[in-house]
Amino acid sequence: MWLLLSPTVLEAPFLRGEPFSFLGRKGLRGEGFVWLETGIGKVNAALTLAAWASQDSVEKALLFGIAGAYPGSGLLPGDVVLVGEEVEADLGTQEGLKPLGFPALEVGGKAYYNRFPLDPGLTRALARMLGLRVVVGLTRDRVSENPGEAEALASRWGAQVESMEGAAFARACLALGIPGVEVRAISNPAGVRDKGAWRIPLAVRALEGTLAPILGGAFPEGLQG
Ligand SMILES: O=C(O)c1cccc(C(=O)CC[C@H]2O[C@@H](n3cnc4c(=O)[nH]cnc43)[C@H](O)[C@@H]2O)c1
């Protein structure tokens, strides 16, 4: 059973199931999955996963949504990627959390500061099955507002895509011991606010095509990659 999450219902129009409400947002109980709308931003993503996991065991979780592509990533609107590692870039100083001396998370004897891996086995298995590129995602509660800001972030942290939830989801999965993976479809060039450059419907259609084999049960239960 998958726990699927997306920031908005606009990213999940292709899902079918029994509707319910969770934390005041939408949810669906489908065949082989539960989907939750988390709301935009880091806190919403983390609290939705944690609140659900507090009431129901979660075998594996998949966060999906649209994202911006950084300059130099080679990614275009409609491209779909798996995020193998997330950077929480608005945590600590401009250089991250390490200068403050306190890790964001300690689990399994490892201290995490600004970089949080998604589940490597599950990510590898999905990458093989779906033929997807694995990239580094960057997360802030803010969005890049000009190409210069986007370029600086991408260069500083070695990231290819930008979102507002990924690192929070990855950190929550690590903290809760939930195997988590993240699928993002590119909707826009990061740092470009002109919505004329955005291709949200194209990105959502790409999400539908990418998730279809998983929703169709093509991803055998228990396969960890
Ligand atoms: O108005 C703007 O300039 C603007 C810039 C970036 C994103 C937004 C949104 O309202 C979408 C936020 C929503 O979608 C994800 N997303 C999509 N593209 C980006 C991006 O370039 N940078 C950050 N987040 C992005 C995000 O995860 C949210 O769920 C508006």
Outline the structure in words:
The structure is a single chain. The chain is α/β, with parallel strands linked by helices. The chain has helices spanning 42-55, 120-130, 147-157, 166-176, 200-215; strands at 2-6, 18-22, 25-30, 33-37, 60-69, 80-88, 105-107, 110-112, 115-117, 133-139, 161-163, 180-189. The strands form 2 sheets. The chain has a 5-stranded mixed barrel with strand order 5-11-10-6-12, surrounded by 4 helices. Strands 7-8 form a two-stranded antiparallel sheet. The longest helix has 16 residues, at 200-215. 28% of the residues lie in helices and 31% in strands. The ligand O=C(O)c1cccc(C(=O)CC[C@H]2O[C@@H](n3cnc4c(=O)[nH]cnc43)[C@H](O)[C@@H]2O)c1 is lined by residues 7, 40, 65-68, 143-144, 162-165, 187-188, 190, 193. It comes from Thermus antranikianii. This is Futalosine hydrolase. It is an enzyme of class 3 (hydrolase).
What small-molecule ligands were found? Answer: the ligand O=C(O)c1cccc(C(=O)CC[C@H]2O[C@@H](n3cnc4c(=O)[nH]cnc43)[C@H](O)[C@@H]2O)c1
Radius of gyration: 16 Å
The major pleated sheet works out as: 5 strands, mixed, barrel
Structural class: alpha/beta
Count of individual beta strands:
12
The number of helical segments is 5
Catalogue the unreliable spans.
Answer: 220-225
C-alpha geometry: globular
- Kindly report the spatial arrangement of strands forming the biggest sheet: 5-11-10-6-12
> Which percent band covers the strand fraction?
25-35%
Alpha-carbon distance between the termini? 16 Å
